[in-house]
């Protein structure tokens, strides 16, 4: 089904802004009724309300999609223009008026002498919040028709969302997904450019999910999205906080800023919305007293409302016990590692908080046999283990290597792909973790076309001080092929980096590379036992 919608919901702007934010000033007392809005002056259409958002000041690219009031919805990414630059607001506002904006919403007073009398100016405390609220309003506030779960944390967002989806599906619910692996609108999976879309895209996808019969939406929320008010206009029925470590310091500058930003997620939670937190995470545990919502905690090491313990772990599966209150249920999952246990506990706690029985929860979690590039085992009949993972933080990488070390009889071989997006402060920590926990290591890049990735690779290599120096390959294909060719029976190869295809190719872009597909193809071509088992 293709969602269709004839025109936007009409919004009385003066009344709307008064309800959302106090209107400080306006040049007109005439009510403005609009059914579309925009934050990019170069894309304003006749009748739009223009929100003068200085996206550049918060590091956000120009918002790529505007609801134009038509009755036909195409993929919004067809309208995206990565090359366009945000105009200075002093230039943007006259351009928006020239293109037909019927009202201006801004945070600061303007020179109204240059603005026509019939174009009112509304000055509000936070234009990004007002823009987000307007985006949802013109789509009929679709989030009010579904339960929205916000999942945030340094790591585990994607895995937790997939586990919650499996659990809700077991309970007979129709689920929509928005996250780093793509957007599922209830019927079709679409590619995505970022973990959390801007508010206009977010409202669009929520509308589609409601139209397609979704009852629940699982939304991965990055710290950058919180900082840029991408959740404006949205209320969350539940918040899952997986952990708070260190990430995105290139954007947030300091660890303290990053942590404070993560905790702003609760301003978007409904008053009675459930919050699920990891009691074993030091930072999360410390802020528990500050959370003014119903809270359920999870833990392996510390007592919590929902606890888990690993009974047995092999290269192929692990068995754990999940305990909630006086009830304990055994669970067997094909995904291994403590990180996966924590993600299972988070999903379980949410299900229990929403009234699902523990057995239904466990059956739903067991439905999820793998998650692309989340310690994903590639089995094509080869006599050694191969795992693909995209977790690149030092903490996640260390946990993954420790897990594989515990279930590997032979050598542990690691192929690590350095990225130009990786913070310089993490590179030494990553190098030390690989040096300490592996027998053979290969350091390469995510892209041979990126000079900064090569710099990152060299900095990781410089952190090694063990007896066995790592091999380096500028070409990722050569690095993975070497590691797979070196592996023997009983060994385990971990490939860390790109994992799944992370960007959407077009005619002008560099061809994308997918670790998972390349590994399967290589095993199929080079191991006789793989041929009958290989699936693209």
What CATH architecture of the largest domain would you give?
3-Layer(aba) Sandwich
Q: CATH H level of the largest domain: which superfamily? A: Mur-like, catalytic domain
Strand order of the largest sheet: 10-9-8-11-7-12-13-14-15-16-17
- Report the structural category: alpha/beta
Q: How big is the Rg?
A: 25 Å
How large is the share of residues in beta strands? 15-25%
> Unreliable segments (pLDDT under 50, ≥5 consecutive)?
1-7, 58-86, 502-511, 531-536
Q: Care to count the β-strands? A: 23
Helix content: 25-40%
Q: Report how far apart the termini are.
A: 27 Å
Description:
- With 536 residues, the protein is an alpha/beta fold.
- Helices cover 32% and strands 20% of the residues.
- It has an eleven-stranded mixed β-sheet, with helices on both faces.
- A hairpin with a 4-residue loop joins strand 15 and strand 16.
- 49% of the residues are buried.
List the helices and strands and how they pair.
Elements: E1 11-12, H1 13-20, E2 33-34, E3 37-38, E4 49-51, H2 89-98, E5 103-106, E6 121-123, H3 127-138, E7 147-152, H4 157-170, E8 175-179, E9 182-184, E10 189-190, H5 199-211, E11 216-220, H6 223-227, E12 236-241, H7 249-252, H8 255-263, E13 269-278, H9 282-287, E14 295-299, E15 306-313, E16 318-324, E17 327-333, H10 338-353, H11 358-366, E18 376-377, E19 385-389, H12 394-407, E20 412-418, H13 424-437, E21 440-445, H14 451-462, E22 471-472, H15 476-486, E23 492-496, H16 515-526
Parallel strand pairs: 3-4, 4-5, 5-6, 7-11, 7-12, 8-11, 12-13, 13-14, 14-15, 19-23, 20-21, 20-23, 21-22
Antiparallel strand pairs: 1-2, 8-9, 9-10, 15-16, 16-17, 18-19
